[in-house]
Specification:
By secondary structure, the protein is mainly α. The chain folds into 2 domains: 93 residues, Serine Threonine Protein Phosphatase 5, Tetratricopeptide repeat (Alpha Horseshoe), CATH 1.25.40; 112 residues, Tetratricopeptide repeat domain (Serine Threonine Protein Phosphatase 5, Tetratricopeptide repeat, Alpha Horseshoe). The chain contains 12 helices and no strands. Helix 2 crosses helix 3 and helix 6 packs across helix 7. The longest helix is centred in the last third of the chain and has 17 residues. The two termini are 40 Å apart. The relative contact order is 0.07.
Length: 226
């Protein structure tokens, strides 16, 4: 008996795939027709995709309230991208009044699943004290997680915290290393920060900083952001 690697799609799977094909072709109304019944039956990916259509106004009139509704349904089932997108709506007051605390709540849920932009945004909220109590240690924690996934702005911001001793022990070598990695990953501010810091370091400190930077560059080079 020869094993088969083809499976017969269930009606819901078939409808989802038809919607994906329509979306890829730019036929957003057709994608909406396929995904809406699935979303209404509680299928998470369809709920998220419906949120995207309303969020961007693809095949429907742009409606942030509807986007938030469908994102929330998917987010409550643990969909990390839906959690992130819902947080963005709350952060910007789209579809509801601006609510930094709700944004932080949903960013956190996405961040704990490894969603890199959510990790960065949550770090930013902690650094600014927006929606959460200001806490540089928590900012450093979330920046680090994003930085280790190659997020260049998080790398630069983590470097700033090390340079200032905010939330982490002051460590100019670590600051230089994070600036340098971020600069290599295309962050202009990090390049300026690195060069300014280098002017204040002794030759020995600069050598140590560059050695650490080489280690970081190997470990934390820029990866595609999901």
């Amino acid at each position: 008996m020869v094993a088969s690697f083809l499976t017969v799609a269930t009606p819901s799977q078939a409808g989802y795939l038809v919607g994906m094909i329509a979306f890829a072709k730019g036929d957003y109304p057709a994608a909406l027709v396929e995904w809406r019944p699935l979303a209404e039956r509680g299928e998470t990916e369809a709920q998220f995709n419906l949120g995207v259509l309303y969020d961007r106004g693809l095949g429907v009139e742009q409606d942030y309230g509807q986007a938030a509704k469908w994102y929330r349904l998917a987010a409550e089932q643990g969909h990390a991208k839906a959690q992130f997108n819902l947080a963005v709506l709350y952060a910007n007051g789209l579809g509801s009044k601006q609510d930094s605390a709700e944004a932080a709540r949903w960013y956190r849920q996405a961040a704990t699943q490894g969603q890199v932009e959510a990790q960065f945004n949550l770090g930013l909220l902690y650094e600014e004290g927006s929606g959460v109590p200001q806490n540089y240690a928590d900012a450093a924690h979330w920046y680090r997680l994003a930085a280790e996934q190659g997020h260049a702005v998080a790398q630069n911001n983590l470097g700033i915290l090390y340079a200032n001793g905010q939330g982490v022990p002051r460590d100019l070598a670590a600051a230089y290393a994070w600036y340098d990695v971020a600069a290599t990953n295309g962050n202009t501010k990090a390049r300026l920060n690195r060069d300014r810091l280098a002017e204040t370091l002794s030759p020995k400190q600069l050598l140590e900083s560059r050695q650490l930077s080489a280690e970081y560059a190997e470990r934390y080079r820029l990866w595609p952001v999901p």
